[in-house]
Write a structure and sequence with these properties.
Layout: H1 2-17, H2 22-38, H3 49-63, H4 68-81, H5 84-87, H6 94-110, H7 119-150, H8 154-158, H9 172-197, H10 201-214, H11 222-233, H12 244-251, H13 254-278, H14 285-295, H15 303-309, H16 322-339, H17 347-364, H18 370-386, H19 400-403
Helix pairs in contact: 1-2, 1-3, 2-4, 3-4, 3-6, 4-7, 6-7, 6-9, 7-9, 7-10, 9-10, 10-13, 11-13, 16-18, 17-18
Length: 409
């Protein structure tokens, strides 16, 4: 049985593809995908370089099939193929995997929005394109997970049995750099463009999950990757209110909510690390990031709602600290976003919210934690610098006792 499975995994599928029958192509790929998904760990389908290369060649051919229905089944198979169980026999064909993943993502990027005048045709083509994008992102995420898993496998890192002519290309380091590069060049622009036309929680969940995995693909590049995300592509606070409909879907989807929260937490952690290298100050980091880790999944507000949240007062003698926790969490998220250029709230509105927040804390006799106080002062300074129409504050607006809790450069 094992022998028959191995045979079908390569040669039999190629024979099927020689036939001029689209439905047979789809069924052959579907069966191939099921074999890849259900393969017991103890059974290795691709035990040598030749068999693995044959499977990759078949996938490359079918991903480029002009019939989109066949290509969708092919990219599902790619996602199932990119698992350590299938690729752990040395040498790992990193260069071939790059070629396969690059082909998948390039084909996905080349799919233009449907232009047909027939509504039914538009609907079918749009559904297929959405499916292709989803499974292409799953392939990318699985490739990222594969790179992380291989970090703990000395044989996969060294790739000692790689042929001499491939030695410089077939390395885990090159593969990891490729993942970061193609994410920047193809994945992020492609997903952002798609989300402008459609709301898809499943696409968003896989995409954010892949980005989250990329933080650990190349640990030495983590800070650079985070800074690029925060400034060029995915400003951290923009996930709160990119589309109200998407936000509502996030709130009703626990998996997506947790995925987004985990990503924002890791992004903030990395951005803080970047800031600390550029500015010589220290704060109670552990407390601050514990606050973010607990508070981000509960920060279920749009940006306008969050600004109103900053003006609310907790009930007197209330033991419920959730309001303060949510206020502090949102201020930190704003702080990281603004520090790296994502100024998505008008300065006048932000200045008023921060002023009201501090006055409320002063009236209650509360002193915000140092990292919150520093962030609020930063906003007051930035808003005054960028806006001409701002309220003035009293000389005693900030109690002198508060300044002793913060260290300034």
């Amino acid at each position: 049985i094992v022998g028959r499975i191995k045979e079908f995994a390569g040669l039999s599928l190629r024979d099927v593809l020689q036939m001029n029958n689209v439905e047979l192509h789809k069924q052959g790929l579907l069966l191939f995908t099921e074999i890849l998904k259900r393969q017991p760990v103890e059974i290795k389908l691709f035990t040598n370089r030749g068999i693995c290369k044959e499977a990759i060649d078949v996938l490359l051919e079918t991903v480029n099939c002009p019939v989109l229905e066949v290509a969708v089944e092919a990219v599902k198979a790619v996602a199932a193929f990119l698992r350590k169980e299938h690729l752990s026999c040395p040498p790992v064909l990193y260069a071939e995997l790059q070629k396969l993943l690059g082909t998948v993502l390039k084909r996905c990027a080349d799919l233009s929005p449907p232009q047909s005048s027939k509504r039914r045709a538009v609907s079918l083509e749009g559904v297929l394109q959405g499916q292709f994008l989803l499974h292409a992102l799953e392939s990318f995420r699985n490739a990222c997970r594969l790179a992380v898993e291989f970090q703990s496998d000395p044989m996969a890192q060294e790739n000692a049995f790689t042929a001499p002519d491939c030695e410089s290309r077939d390395t885990l380091s090159n593969f990891s750099e490729f993942l970061l590069r193609i994410c920047d060049n193809l994945c992020i622009p492609m997903v952002m463009s798609y989300l402008e036309r459609a709301v898809s929680p499943s696409v968003m969940e896989v995409f954010i999950s892949a980005l989250n995995t990329l933080f650990t693909v190349m640990p030495n590049m983590r800070d650079k990757f985070s800074k690029k995300l925060g400034t060029d592509h995915v400003p951290c606070a923009a996930l709160l209110d990119r589309q109200n409909l998407l936000l509502l879907r996030i709130l009703s989807n626990p998996v997506l909510n947790q995925t987004c929260s985990s990503f924002l937490y890791n992004l903030c952690l990395s951005l803080y690390s970047v800031m600390e290298k550029e500015r010589d100050f220290s704060q109670n980091e552990q407390e601050m990031f514990e606050l973010l880790q607990k508070g981000l999944p509960q920060l279920n507000y749009t940006v306008p709602e969050s600004l109103l949240l900053l003006t609310e007062n907790p009930e007197p003698f209330s033991l419920d600290q959730s309001l303060c926790s949510h206020q502090y969490c949102f201020i930190l998220l704003l702080y990281f976003a603004y520090t790296f250029g994502d100024r998505f709230v008008p300065e006048a509105e932000l200045f008023l919210a921060m002023k009201t927040f501090l006055l409320s804390a002063q009236d209650r006799g509360d002193c915000p934690p140092p990292y919150i106080f520093r962030a609020v002062l930063y906003f007051l300074a930035v808003c005054q610098d960028k806006s001409k129409d701002l309220d003035l504050v009293k000389d005693d607006f900030i109690p002198p006792s508060w300044t002793f809790s913060v260290q300034f450069n």
